[in-house]
């Protein structure tokens, strides 16, 4: 027999578990549905003094009073916060934690950070800023529950009951931080993923293999994952299926994730970039780094990627005086042409080895290295944990892209924007706009020739620039992007949907790099983006990496990946040579509330 302690999500109580609890008991298990203090029939006059720790201690008292050695703690939505807090206080009494369609919060993280409803999140932020130790956050209005998670498959009668019995919840339960000592860090944990709400075993697998580094720990042996084909409220929409899944979880069943083997034993964000490029001068301005073309004398490496032996020495790539060495494979005569967009073309003949001809494009002149250069701003995805080290701009990935751009004569710009949670896209958008303004004002930058290059979920930040493109934005690039919030990302404001705005304004050309083995959730947003772009007549160039996965520059660093990155880079820099292709526009992207 297994004893389940069922802790509900926001605004609800033990009543929400009634049918699932009955089915568990009918199968020979024990079930304790919980109503937390300040909610339902335990509501207090004004909510004062009720916070997350109140709920943790109440759950600890319940566990202490259950006459079995160990229990399975099940947390749904907000309920996972007190579950983790209680498990931390009583780890020896917990057999397993079950996270029901809810991400695992970290020590110090308040529940407000993962609230999916933007309006409720704003109200919580305002209440927290006021410092008032009391007050309530109201439950959703009728018809608004879907903003807190998909209500798919919930019968009308059950939804009516949810709306009728839901009660306000004390603000401090959301805004006070979760405090964990690490005592429960090794407890077995099962994630039940409600697929109609956007979660799935496949999505978690992609995040473990190639997503933000904080997801890599989900590949630990203590984690298991199970799909449940319903919306975010399975105790109402599929109580029988949920009861069976909980019994399977208690038995340790489910999918285990494994991180890539071999060269990918390190987190993907720490893997080496696919081209080993030497450092270039770098200027750090707050959260922004400018990687500058080196105008000195010395030996440089061509951006073209060749393998084998053979050396030729000639004039550098047109960003100053010096020599450049490249390594080619094959036999015969290789003619390399270097084009400087300002004043000169240098041609040299290599009598060593090499299969063909290539063209190097760079900006500026050897005689006037102070000429302002165009800039490419590289925008990372996320969410990224605020304590991740190195921060994104110091990872091999962004350093590689920025140095590549600088070696070709442009200014490569990286930044650490503050996308730490799904509700942080507005803040990250502000960080990006401020970074671009700083870059355009820099004396080494030609402020009328700027490109923005977005990666992964950073692609959502492209929406502002597509909706109101400024005339100096010459190109917008994106690699394996999300062009709409991923399933289950209800906390992301509707403003961040590039698929909805592409081509609605006369914007810059778009260079899109697609991974052929992309996760379906990302691929679906790209397909929607391309359909809208075609319908609206937007200029989109597609660079395909047929065998590449998400973050292919790190996890698939072969010839195919290198060739595609080089093609995309040259296309972006080519757009920086041309006159603007779209007239007018605001000086900055539209700011929206």
Q: Which sheet architecture does the biggest sheet show?
A: 8 strands, mixed
Helix content: 25-40%
Q: How many individual helices?
A: 16
Question: Can you give the mean pLDDT?
Answer: 83
Task: Give the termini separation.
Answer: 53 Å
Oligomer: single chain
User: pLDDT under 50 segments (min length 5)?
Assistant: 296-362, 581-593
Structural class: alpha/beta
Number of strands: 22
Q: If strands are numbered along the chain, what order do they take across the biggest sheet?
A: 9-10-18-17-19-20-21-22
Q: Approximately what portion of the residues adopt beta-strand conformation?
A: 15-25%
Shape: elongated
Radius of gyration equals: 27 Å
Structure in words:
The two termini are 53 Å apart. The chain is α/β, with parallel strands linked by helices. The protein is 28% helix and 20% strand. It has helices at 18-26, 52-65, 80-89, 118-130, 156-165, 171-175, 201-210, 234-237, 239-250, 396-407, 425-440, 463-467, 498-501, 520-536, 552-555, 559-577, and strands spanning 3-7, 30-33, 71-76, 94-100, 136-137, 169-170, 189-194, 223-228, 282-285, 288-291, 299-301, 311-315, 323-327, 334-340, 345-350, 358-362, 373-379, 411-415, 445-455, 473-479, 510-515, 540-545. The chain is elongated. The protein has 16 helices and 22 strands. The strands form five sheets. The protein has an eight-stranded mixed beta sheet with strand order 9-10-18-17-19-20-21-22, sandwiched between helices. The chain has a six-stranded parallel beta sheet with strand order 2-1-3-4-7-8, sandwiched between helices. The protein has a three-stranded mixed beta sheet with strand order 11-13-12, with no helix packed on it.
């Amino acid at each position: 027999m297994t004893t389940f302690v069922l802790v509900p999500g926001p605004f609800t109580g033990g009543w929400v578990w009634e049918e699932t609890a009955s089915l568990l008991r009918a199968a020979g298990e024990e079930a304790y549905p919980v109503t937390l203090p300040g909610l339902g029939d335990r509501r207090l006059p004004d909510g004062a003094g009720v916070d997350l720790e109140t709920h943790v201690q109440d759950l600890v008292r319940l566990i202490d009073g259950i006459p079995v050695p160990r229990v399975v703690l099940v947390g749904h939505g907000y309920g996972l916060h007190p579950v983790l807090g209680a498990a931390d206080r009583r780890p020896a009494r917990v057999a397993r934690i079950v996270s029901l369609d809810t991400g695992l919060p970290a020590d110090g993280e308040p529940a407000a950070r993962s609230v999916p409803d933007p309006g409720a999140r704003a109200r919580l932020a305002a209440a927290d800023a006021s410092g008032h130790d009391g007050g309530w956050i109201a439950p959703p209005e009728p018809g608004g529950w879907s903003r807190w998670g998909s209500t798919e498959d919930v019968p009308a009668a059950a939804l009516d009951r949810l709306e009728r019995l839901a009660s306000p919840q004390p603000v401090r339960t959301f805004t006070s931080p979760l405090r964990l000592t690490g005592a429960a860090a090794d407890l077995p944990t099962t994630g039940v993923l409600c697929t109609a709400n956007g979660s799935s075993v496949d999505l978690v697998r992609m995040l473990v293999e190639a997503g933000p580094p904080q997801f890599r720990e989900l590949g630990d042996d203590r984690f298991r994952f199970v799909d449940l084909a319903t919306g975010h409220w399975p105790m109402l929409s599929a109580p029988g299926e949920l009861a069976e899944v909980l019994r399977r979880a208690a038995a340790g069943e489910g999918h285990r994730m494994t991180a890539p083997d071999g060269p990918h034993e390190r987190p993907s964000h720490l893997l080496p970039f696919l081209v080993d490029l030497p450092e270039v001068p770098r200027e750090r301005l707050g959260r922004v780094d400018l990687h500058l073309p080196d105008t000195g004398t010395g030996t440089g490496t061509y951006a073209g990627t060749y393998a084998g032996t053979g050396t030729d020495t000639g004039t550098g790539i047109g960003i100053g005086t010096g020599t450049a060495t490249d390594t080619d494979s094959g036999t015969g005569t290789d003619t390399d042409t270097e084009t400087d967009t300002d004043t000169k073309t240098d041609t040299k003949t290599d009598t060593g080895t090499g299969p063909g001809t290539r063209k190097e494009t760079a900006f500026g002149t050897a005689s006037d290295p102070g000429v302002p250069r165009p800039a490419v701003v590289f925008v990372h995805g996320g969410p990224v944990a605020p304590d991740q080290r190195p921060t994104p701009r110091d990872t091999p990935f962004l350093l590689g892209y920025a140095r590549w751009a600088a070696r070709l004569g442009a200014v490569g710009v990286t930044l650490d924007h503050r996308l730490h949670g799904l509700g942080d896209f507005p803040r990250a958008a502000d960080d990006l706009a401020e970074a671009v303004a700083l870059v355009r004002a820099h004396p080494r930058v030609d402020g009328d020739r700027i490109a923005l290059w977005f990666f992964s979920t950073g692609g959502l930040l492209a929406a502002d620039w597509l909706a109101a493109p400024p005339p100096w934005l010459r190109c917008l690039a994106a690699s394996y992007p999300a062009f709409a919030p991923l399933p289950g990302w209800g906390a992301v404001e509707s403003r961040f949907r590039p698929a909805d705005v592409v081509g609605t304004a006369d914007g810059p050309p778009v260079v899109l790099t697609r991974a052929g083995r992309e996760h379906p959730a990302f691929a679906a947003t790209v397909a929607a983006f391309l359909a809208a772009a075609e319908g609206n007549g937007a200029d989109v160039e597609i660079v395909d990496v047929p065998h590449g996965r998400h973050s292919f520059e790190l996890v698939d660093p072969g010839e195919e990946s290198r060739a595609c990155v080089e093609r995309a880079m040259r296309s972006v820099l080519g757009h920086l040579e041309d006159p603007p292709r779209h007239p007018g526009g605001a000086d900055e992207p539209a700011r929206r509330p």
